[in-house]
Amino acid sequence: AHAAGALTVWDLAHSAGAVPVALNDCEADYAIGCGYKYLNGGPGAPAFVWVHSKHAGAFEQPLSGWWGHAAPFEFTPHYRPAPGVGRYLCGTQPVVALASLECGLDTVLAAEPFNGDFGAMAALRDKSLALTDAFIALVEQRCAGRFTLVTPRDHAQRGSQVCLAMAHAHPTAAYAIVQALIARGVIGDYRAGDAQTPHILRFGFTPLYLGFEDVWNAVEHLVQVLQADEWQRPEFNQKNAVT
Q1: What band does 117 get if pLDDT is binned at 50, 70 and 90?
Q2: Residues above pLDDT 70, as percent of the chain
Q3: HEC letters along the chain
Q4: Distance between CA atoms of 208 and 231, rounded to whole angstroms?
Q5: How many C-beta atoms lie closer than 10 Å to residue 46's C-beta?
Q6: Report field, pTM of the whole predicted structure over 0.85
Q7: Is 95 exposed, middle or buried (0-12, 13-18, 19+ CB in 10 A)?
Q8: Partner of 191 for a Cys bridge, out of 47, 52, 135, 200, CB 3.0 to 4.6 A?
Q9: Over the stretch 44-62, which tens digit does the pLDDT of each residue have?
């Protein structure tokens, strides 16, 4: 991208808190992400932007607000952006949501003592891969022939989730299976996919508070839903707005 004169914007929505990312080493220009997923900020948690230091004082963001003003209390007639990364602020921040996000970040940072290149993230990444490996192995052992694995087996290509596609099944089965699992307390989600890989069941694994017992129990519930044809119940086949 840089060779062609383009800048890069990295999407960290499914990376921050799950995968170690060295933005400076990768020469990223910008990055954006959310706080409500692996950073554990809860629903409605603030998003974030990362800006390489070489761009921080030059780029102008389109949303101007008093928090990003160089002198917000002077009430001058023209907007003057603050120096550095402060110019990316806009209006008053949602303080309560930020407090929740701070607690979530504290749990990430406390995962292990700060040592090595990535500290806590290295430990979380190792556990994440172990959890997803275990889930894949158990599904393939106990649900043989029912699903095809969409998620890459290669650790370097895998995040902290596992996607399964239905193999030779009724087109609504994947959605209904997810709904039946949710009713049992196993919270996955369904994605329609595309013509090449339709009807996807998606499972996220946050290593901070999920363990191998949770993985075993999730697969056990999946087996029971399939063996009893529980997914065929009418209430699990009614399409909801959130899947």
Answers
A1: low
A2: 96
A3: CHHHCCCCEEECCCCCCCCCCCCCCCCCCEEEEECCCCCCCCCCCCEEEEECCCCCCCCCCCCCCHHHECCCCCCCCCCCECCHHHHHCCCCCCHHHHHHHHHHHHHHHCCCCCCCCCCHHHHHHHHHHHHHHHHHHHHHHHCCCCEEECCCCCHHHCCCEEEEEECCCCCCHHHHHHHHHHHCCCCCEEEEECCCCEEEEEEECCCCCCCHHHHHHHHHHHHHHHHCCHHHCHHHCCCCCCC
A4: 30
A5: 15
A6: yes
A7: exposed
A8: 200
A9: 999 999 999 999 888 888 8
Count the neighbouring beta carbons within 10 Å of the beta carbon of residue 224: 13
Could you tell me which residues are beta bridge partners of residue 47? 34
For tokens 């303080």, what's the residue?
95
Side-chain-side CA neighbours of residue 152 (13 Å)? 7
In whole angstroms, what is the distance from residue 142 CA to residue 126 CA? 24
> Can you list the domains of the chain with their CATH numbers?
2-109 (3.40.640.10), 120-236 (3.90.1150.10)
**Span 169-185, pLDDT tens digits:** 677 899 999 999 999 99
Tokens representing 165 are: 């596609």
Q: Average of pLDDT values for 89-98?
A: 92
